[in-house]
Amino acid sequence: MDLAMTALRLISLPTHGLLELAGGIALMAAPFVLGFTAAGLVAAVVVGALVVGLALSAATTDGSGLPISAHFAFDRGIAVGLLGGALILGLAGDVAAAAVFAAAALGQAALNITTRYTARA
Fold first, then answer.
1. Which H/E stretch holds residue 50?
2. Which parts of the chain have pLDDT scores under 70?
3. Of residues 47, 38, 37, 54, the one with CA closest to residue 103
């Protein structure tokens, strides 16, 4: 049973942080490239900054960063929040922002599923 639960956990936490950083920066850049509405622009920049901050908290090497259990919980919350943001932006008529938020939610969920949330060796 334990083997089945860890078979998909292929990405280390530092790699997870790097991919999360790239995703946060892409989320902050998307409104300027794709022409979101004002609401989509503000939401993307704020959520992107939160994702970048979370990614940087995983980058500490001295153990002073965010506890792994907290990072795990925040990752789940970000995925759900991105999905909710996609729904709200879609209902508001910003189709481009809704699509980007939905893609970011799927990307974050996939990253969460494939990450080994363990301390560094």
1. helix 38-57
2. 1-8, 60-64, 119-121
3. 47
